[in-house]
Amino acid sequence: MTLRRVAHEVNTGQASLYRHIVDRDELLQLLVDGFADSYPLASSRGAIEQRLIRQWRLTRDHLAAHRWVVRIAAEGRVRAFGSDALGKHNRALLAEAGLAAAQVSKAERALWNLTVGDLLDANQQQSDYNWALTRLVRGLLA
Prior knowledge:
- The protein is mostly helical.
- Helices cover 68% and strands 0% of the residues.
């Protein structure tokens, strides 16, 4: 994503953008922060295993529909994946499942790595995400 493209999309010039932002990274962070507020949260119905799987499938599907976020995050220049609401929701689910605080952080990181790794896999003919997600969640809860 270039500043030229953003300027074109909002029907202004690049110089006009710089009146409001310092650089490309600031613009990307603003875009990603706005995106983070749109993550869907799964309902609280059902067994904890199914709720965790449903939440991470929703998260993956949401990111798959907005792959620009995944590409930006892969660059490592902006914090792109966690929203406060989504992070709290995910950590609460993992804690409800019985994981200790230290395990919750590691489990959340493993789930993010699986989700983002699947989306970055450019050579995939068919994703094994659902299979891998189910196995990971079951392993976390064992």
